[in-house]
């Protein structure tokens, strides 16, 4: 018969008997059963946390989260013995409920309100990102010794002793902020409840709770709501920003002061920004304001401009303030002029490009000599080139081939949707045969594979022409190079792909 013990000691002893007598390689199911048993009485489970071995925190937390034991979750966040709590990875595996999410934040809120934090407190980061630390919970639930040793927290800092010394000196103890890491996707007219609750807590705790957002996606939402969110986000934490809003240029100008404070931004996508038909001085000022913000983005490496209606004739205004070399420049579905193309070929920030995309930019009426110069300037670094749907004709394409042949690092070249003949395709093959790293070429169905001027694709002719290219590749010792034909269906616009066999859209399939 067990001797009578104080309640706390009895809980500790009971829990340790359940778990420590298991082999460290015990099946996760036993851990789950033990955690469920302990959580049958949340009050007793919370009392046991003070002496709970750190190895048992993760499996117990998982069970509490899955079982929606909100009070236990709240207490476990306050006693979490590791620097990071990867809650997002757990939310990825379990359908999160608002009450469990709120319980975790409430626990953090209680922790931040304490002048002297708990003895075992180690929490510095609450990670809400769903695609990070994905193996953390799996490894801990397995209870492997090697894992325990790798993830064991550092020795506890003498927080209470330091606080006493500071108090004797008349100083207020300094509390480091807890960081919340989250990738935000802002859309719709109203915020979802989880984001609203997080913002509420951040606003309440101010400097003690920092929201750091590495990836930010902004879709259709009133500017007032967007600015409200950005007000509580550490803007210098944003490294990847996408703005997918149908904005007028004047609306963009209201957003630009926030963009200028994102000093660690590495990737920027701006999409669907429109300008009024008649140019006004205010619009010109907005373009200059956008350009000026690039001075505040010294780490920018990737720039994507999609469906930007004001670029034509103004590309130099937009790009002139870039002060670091870009790795990626993508200008898609935009109108540009010949002077824009000339400026692009001379722009200092594009000399080290790895990825150049001009998909959907109509080049039919332009002299592509500047594009030749640009390709030559980037020939030592360029890895991916996208010229889809540019309206490039045979003569223009032929003029680009000598420049392409010097791109020693090129791995992928796509130029679908251009009216190119079989003869020019064969010439491309010969010019690129020496590019040892080129592995993927996506090309349009040759002009000879169409039955008529209406764009009806003859699959038999396409098969013959594709076989011809494959034969040439084999003869040249490049049979592993992946050449795929892609052309839009004239009826529905979906792509028809052809490698060894055609991948058809429904329009070509029998009823």
TrEMBL record:
<keyword id="KW-0433">Leucine-rich repeat</keyword>
<dbReference type="InterPro" id="IPR032675">
    <property type="entry name" value="LRR_dom_sf"/>
</dbReference>
<dbReference type="InterPro" id="IPR026271">
    <property type="entry name" value="PRAME"/>
</dbReference>
<comment type="similarity">
    <text>Belongs to the PRAME family.</text>
</comment>
<protein>
    <recommendedName>
        <fullName>Preferentially expressed antigen in melanoma</fullName>
    </recommendedName>
</protein>
<keyword id="KW-0677">Repeat</keyword>
<dbReference type="InterPro" id="IPR050694">
    <property type="entry name" value="LRRC14/PRAME"/>
</dbReference>
């Amino acid at each position: 018969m067990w001797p009578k013990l104080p309640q706390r000691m009895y809980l500790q002893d009971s829990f340790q008997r359940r778990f420590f007598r298991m082999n460290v390689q015990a099946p996760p199911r036993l851990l789950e059963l033990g955690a469920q048993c302990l959580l049958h009485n949340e009050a007793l489970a919370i009392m046991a946390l003070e002496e709970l071995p750190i190895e048992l925190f993760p499996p117990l937390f998982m069970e509490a989260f899955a079982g929606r034991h909100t009070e236990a979750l709240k207490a476990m966040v306050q006693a979490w013995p590791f620097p990071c709590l990867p809650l997002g990875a757990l939310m990825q595996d379990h359908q999160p409920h608002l009450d469990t999410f709120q319980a975790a934040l409430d626990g953090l809120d209680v922790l931040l309100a304490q002048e002297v934090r708990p003895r075992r407190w180690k929490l510095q980061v609450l990670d809400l990102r769903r695609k990070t630390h994905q193996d953390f919970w799996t490894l801990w639930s397995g209870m492997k010794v090697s894992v325990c040793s790798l993830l064991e927290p550092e020795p506890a800092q003498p927080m209470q002793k330091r606080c006493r010394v500071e108090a004797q000196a008349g100083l207020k103890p300094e509390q480091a902020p807890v960081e919340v890491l989250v990738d935000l996707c802002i859309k719709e007219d109203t915020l979802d409840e989880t984001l609203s609750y997080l913002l509420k807590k951040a606003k309440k705790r101010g400097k003690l709770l920092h929201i750091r957002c590495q990836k930010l996606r902004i879709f259709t939402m009133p500017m007032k709501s967007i600015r409200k969110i950005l007000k509580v986000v550490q803007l210098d934490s944003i490294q990847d920003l996408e703005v997918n809003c149908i904005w007028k240029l004047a609306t963009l100008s209201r957003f630009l002061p926030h963009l200028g404070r994102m000093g660690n931004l590495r990737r920027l996508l701006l999409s669907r920004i429109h300008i009024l038909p008649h140019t006004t001085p205010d619009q010109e000022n907005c373009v200059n304001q956008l350009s000026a913000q690039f001075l505040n983005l010294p780490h920018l490496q990737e720039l994507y401009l999609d469906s930007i209606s004001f670029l034509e004739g103004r590309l130099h205004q937009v790009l002139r303030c870039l002060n670091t070399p870009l790795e990626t420049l993508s200008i898609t579905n935009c109108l540009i002029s010949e002077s824009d193309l000339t400026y692009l070929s001379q722009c200092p920030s594009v000399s080290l490009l790895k990825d150049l995309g001009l998909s959907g930019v109509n080049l039919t009426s332009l002299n592509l000599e500047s594009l030749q110069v640009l390709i030559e300037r980037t020939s030592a670094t360029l890895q991916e080139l996208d010229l889809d749907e540019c309206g490039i004709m045979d003569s223009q394409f032929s003029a680009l081939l000598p420049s392409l042949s010097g791109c020693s690092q090129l791995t992928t070249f796509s130029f679908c949707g251009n009216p190119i003949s079989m003869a020019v395709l064969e010439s491309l093959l010969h010019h690129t045969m020496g590019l040892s790293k080129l592995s993927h070429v996506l090309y349009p169905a040759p002009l000879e594979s169409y039955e008529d001027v209406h764009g009806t694709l003859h699959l038999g002719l396409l098969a013959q022409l594709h076989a011809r290219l494959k034969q040439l590749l084999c003869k040249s010792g490049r049979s592993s190079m992946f050449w795929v034909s892609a052309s839009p269906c004239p009826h529905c616009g979906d792509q028809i792909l052809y490698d060894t066999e055609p991948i058809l859209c429904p329009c070509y399939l029998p009823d």
